[in-house]
């Protein structure tokens, strides 16, 4: 069977929610539409549709395959439109070539929910045919295994096999509550941390380290948290000194619940990266998403206002 026709049938079935309605949209019988979908499933070796009540819904693979098929068909329509120079046809081609479908994105929990969310909101407003499936994970992700199109990674060097786009680094600042500083005193230099309770952070089972100079200047970690938001609340409640991203602690400082300390030694963390798999076709929607994010968050971009 013609593969493009099979893709067209599959896309119509997913959009309509049933084989019969998808078949009607393609001008064929439900039996014929079923054969077209089965041809794709035989080629892929896995089912693309499953029944849910009275509807036919895509499987996990079917959802990803639908997104790619929709884009392939859009590109074909755009190519066909090149032969017609009429304004109406040009507008149609432009509409068809817009990014469409779902993009699966991964990011650390706090980065995604605080730093990136305002940018995602702007992106979705200007890309009405795109949906973001956001996975917030405080661990390393396997893009291929987990079906992730693009991942924001904080610090470190991206693994081999990934295309990495450098983003602006995140400034981290030491802070504590006014009550804690009144009890324990204000550290004036990194060496003073030896007499303080420092709040540790564990990421993907690796204990994060404070990187003040001189090397090794630190205090005892009375609390180790797996989430920066927990660190933030611990600092607000006077449990010690935390080293937190500026965008996260700024609202607390403005409200007077936290005070910055050791500002002269504030660290600019290793740059964030936006990565995707290398050595394969990059869809137009992913390419557009990456370009948009780099324009907003790249090293040369203006700083993003933090969200309260």
Automatic annotation (TrEMBL):
UniProt keyword terms in alphabetical order: DNA-binding, Transcription, Transcription regulation
Boundaries of every HTH lysR-type domain copy: 1-59
Transmembrane segments: none
GO biological processes: DNA-templated transcription
GO molecular function, one term: sequence-specific DNA binding
Pfam families: HTH_1, LysR_substrate
KW Transcription regulation (keyword) present: yes
Domain of life, source organism: Bacteria
InterPro entries from the UniProt entry: LysR-type_TF_proteobact-type (IPR058163), LysR_HTH_N (IPR000847), LysR_subst-bd (IPR005119), WH-like_DNA-bd_sf (IPR036388), WH_DNA-bd_sf (IPR036390)
Gene3D superfamilies xrefs: 3.40.190.290, Winged helix-like DNA-binding domain superfamily/Winged helix DNA-binding domain (1.10.10.10)
Presence of the UniProt keyword Protease in the record: no
Record-stated family: Belongs to the LysR transcriptional regulatory family.
Protein name: LysR family transcriptional regulator
């Amino acid at each position: 069977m013609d593969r493009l026709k099979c893709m067209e049938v599959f896309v119509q079935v997913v959009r309509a929610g049933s084989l019969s309605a998808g078949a009607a949209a393609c001008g064929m019988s439900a039996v014929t539409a079923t054969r077209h979908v089965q041809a794709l499933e035989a080629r892929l070796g896995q089912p693309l549709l499953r029944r849910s009540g009275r509807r036919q819904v895509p499987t996990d693979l079917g959802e990803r395959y639908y997104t790619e098929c929709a884009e392939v068909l859009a590109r074909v329509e755009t190519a066909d439109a090149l032969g017609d120079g009429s304004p109406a046809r040009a507008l149609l081609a432009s509409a068809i070539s817009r990014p469409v479908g779902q993009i699966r994105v991964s990011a650390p929990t706090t980065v995604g929910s605080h730093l990136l969310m305002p940018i995602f909101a702007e992106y979705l407003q200007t890309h009405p045919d795109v949906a973001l499936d956001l996975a917030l994970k405080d661990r390393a992700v396997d893009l291929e295994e987990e079906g992730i199109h693009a991942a924001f990674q904080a610090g470190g060097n991206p693994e081999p096999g990934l295309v990495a786009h450098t983003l602006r680094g995140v400034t981290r600042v030491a802070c504590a509550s006014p009550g804690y500083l009144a009890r324990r005193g204000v550290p004036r230099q990194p060496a003073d941390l030896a007499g303080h309770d420092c709040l540790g952070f564990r990421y993907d089972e690796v204990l994060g380290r404070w990187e003040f100079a001189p090397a090794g200047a630190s205090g005892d970690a009375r609390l180790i948290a797996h989430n920066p938001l927990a660190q933030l609340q611990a600092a607000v409640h006077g449990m010690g000194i935390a080293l937190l991203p500026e965008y996260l602690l700024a609202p607390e400082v403005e409200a007077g619940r936290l005070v910055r300390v050791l500002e002269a030694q504030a660290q600019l963390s290793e740059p964030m990266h936006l990565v995707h798999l290398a050595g394969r076709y990059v869809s137009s929607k992913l390419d557009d998403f990456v370009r948009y994010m780099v324009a907003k968050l790249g090293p040369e971009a203006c700083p993003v206002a933090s969200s309260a």
